[in-house]
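Lecture 7 notes: from sequence to structure.
We start with the chain below.
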Amino acid sequence: MKFFLAGLCVIIFFVSCKQKKTEITTNKDIYYTCSMHPQVVQDKPGNCPICGMKLIAVNKTTSDFGNEIKLSDQQIKLGNITVDTIRDGSIGNEITLPATLNIDQNKINSVSSRVNGRIDKLYYRNIGEYIPKNAKLFDIYSEELNNAKQEYLLVLERQKTFDNSLINFSQLLSGAKNKLLLWGISEAQIQAIEKEKKVSPLTSFYNTQGGFITALNVTEGDYVTEGGTIVTVAELSTLWAEAQLYASQLSVIDKDATVTVTFTDMPGIIINGKIDFQNPEINPGTRLNLVRIVIPNKNNLLKPGMAAYVTIKNKKKRGLLLPADAVIRNGNSATVWVKAGDNTFVNKMVTIGMETDNKVEIKSGLQTGDVVVISGAYLLNSEYIFKKGANPMEGMKM
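Predicted structure tokens for the same chain:
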């Protein structure tokens, strides 16, 4: 009998403990988290294991499933989560590309020798040196050219001596003169031969286009052949601003768009222009394309090789707009957080269109009047991952 009573007491004791344990079981509709560390989630009150702050109670709702999340007032305040109503507005796509200034290839002039001979004197000898238009470039000694000048002088003298003969000296003189002109002798030099009635062993050649020397291929005393390049001169009144862009950006480029060119080394200079050329071929190695803008170079302040930025401003269009920070991008997808109720937010996938530095066009997924999180969207996304253990974008379909 004593053993029976003792066993009964033990059973009553365990039953009463179980009842007490059941009484202190936490409410399944409430969880506890830290306002400073939302990743801390417990099923009973206590202190945060990270900062020691007292945990706050948060009600679980049916909306806390799927791609929805509900936050406390403290979490919204500390996360600086703000919302705004999406609305229709105008947006202009603006792309800024790094560029380099290069010489305008249409303003390059190569001076070559038209005869075989020896360069006796160079009047400009340094790369980068400026040569005015019509300035004397070099003197050359050429037996072939000297014979042609002697021939012209001889025909000129014979014409005066045998003016009434049956020989057509005018035709001979015209042929001898044309030969000199084709070899680069100017009218003024031919007139000097007629006036002086003698031929110099050296012949001077002049620059036909003012500019800067970009290449010098000979030195004094060198022998040159017919067609050999002596010097290359570039006129820098205009330059090419050449920028590269990816093939994926070509669809948003308007060839008639306004283009602004700025310079890192000269921040005060801003030049407006148009796209003059776009390479029809994509570089297969880099997948890059080239666009070119011809810009004026007043007083030669700009130099080839300088770094620049090309900003292409396309025409404005109407559409639903959001601040750029409101859109969360993940690979080829984009989502936003939309307010679904008091402190409740739902994640929605959207299709974006044109973009600027601070605005994004929403082409689908939202409609006018939707209240969207515009500040703290990434924090809200992180909070969802901490609580649910999954990315809200996983498994979403438009």
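Points to note: The first strand starts at residue 30 and ends at 33. The chain is about 20% helix and 40% strand.
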